[in-house]
Amino acid sequence: MRIIVIDGQGGGIGRSLVELLAKRFPEAEIGAVGTNSVATETMLKGGPSFAATGENAVIFNATEADIIIGPAGIIMANAMHGEISPAIAMAISSSKARVVLIPMNHCRAYIAGVEEKKVAEYLLDAMDIVGRLASEG
Length: 137
Hints:
This protein is of the alpha/beta class. Helix content is 45%, strand content 19%. The protein contains six helices and five strands; from the N terminus they run βαβαβαβααβα. α1 packs parallel to α2 (37-44) and α1 packs across α6. The chain is globular, with a radius of gyration of 13 Å.
């Protein structure tokens, strides 16, 4: 199973995701793909199988992924202060991979029905979702 973590800006959410995924799914290939070098460098500290940076890296890895996980803004063109290009948003939302999004209210998007939680709680919920997806094949 190939899980791609995508993050931008400082990469803190991505690093936490990489760490949790590496612990919970040690058999998975976990890629850390940052929209910028700072995000990638931060995610590298979480121990991914590989890392890459930039728009083309996101586009390429979105086609190779079984699961893509990251903040909700990764599917919104121009989110994260413009780091998510229309091409990145299109590649992720068009991918055949299953996409797990962490709700963040920083991207001008509010998801109805999502209860207010701490980011750490959302990350644990995301691990449960990945676990269900992994068991489905």
